[in-house]
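Format notes (please read before filing issues)

Several people have asked whether sequences and structure tokens are stored in separate files. They are not. Every record keeps both together, in the order shown below: the sequence lines, then the token lines. Line labels are part of the format and must not be stripped during preprocessing.
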Amino acid sequence: MTNITIEDHIWHIILNANANEKKSVLHWQEVENLLLKYGIRHEVHRVTRPGEGIATSKALCDSGVRHIVAAGGDGTVNEVVNGILDSGCNTREVYLAALPLGRGNDWVRTHHYPKGIEEVIQRWKQGRFIQHDVGKVTTQAPDSQRHSRYFINIAGFGFDADVIYDVTYHKPRFGGSAVYVLSLLKTLFSHKPTPVAVTADNGFRFDGEVFMVIAAICKYNGGGICEAKYAVPDDGRIDLIVIPKMGIPKVVAHLKEMFSGDHIDKIKSIRKTLATDIAITSPQLFRAEVEGELLTFGNYRVEVIPNAINTLI
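Then the structure lines:
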């Protein structure tokens, strides 16, 4: 762990103006007042379109900035991380904090961020950072094109990504966290197990139909579901969790345990391991997502970049 003096630096805040149905902007003046109250020097960069967070954080890093804040939800953190990793800078020189203004805020759960923004800023003032691992998913698409995406939380394959697909393309008119819950239930009744082959550099292998596959740097996903109970964000390894096909009654029976993470121990058919390089292939459509963003369809390689970036805990 590294301690720095927060007041010694200008923090560049990438504010997602659309986070939490634009509530991030509605309440931003309150956040601004707190930053001034606690003497945190900062500049704000508003982003409003998908991909703009990547471009903004990349440009900042390429210009010499090394102290960045992602203000929004998990998607905002994901875009900022991708911009940092896409830049030409030494990412281990970058210090990243988050102002959780989104709807899910799953990444900050692993790091025990307080719920109140003032409490977050107070902890921020303590200046405690760890060297956080980052995952990388490379998709080999059917057209032979390769597409890569970094993630600092969880990459989900199968059911997890099918839920995101429903949220993205069949979103109901009402908002809030109920959107994800409704999509989860809808997808549960339409989901079909997919045959996959999962291999890892430590000799792990799984061949068969799966409910879903999780590659985790941190613990939480889907608005508080503890998908990877034992994940450690700075151990240099990915928690690989393969959940074989399950019937609806079994999923429902363990649903409460999935929020606590206890399903990892209680569902005996689950396969899990620690790895640094993973291959996931399937002859059928097998969707993937990172932080609520669907990836290009294809076969996947998942790697870890150890201690890639300094993050606030």
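For reference, the curators noted about this record: The radius of gyration is 19 Å. Residues 64 and 204 are 41 Å apart (CA to CA).
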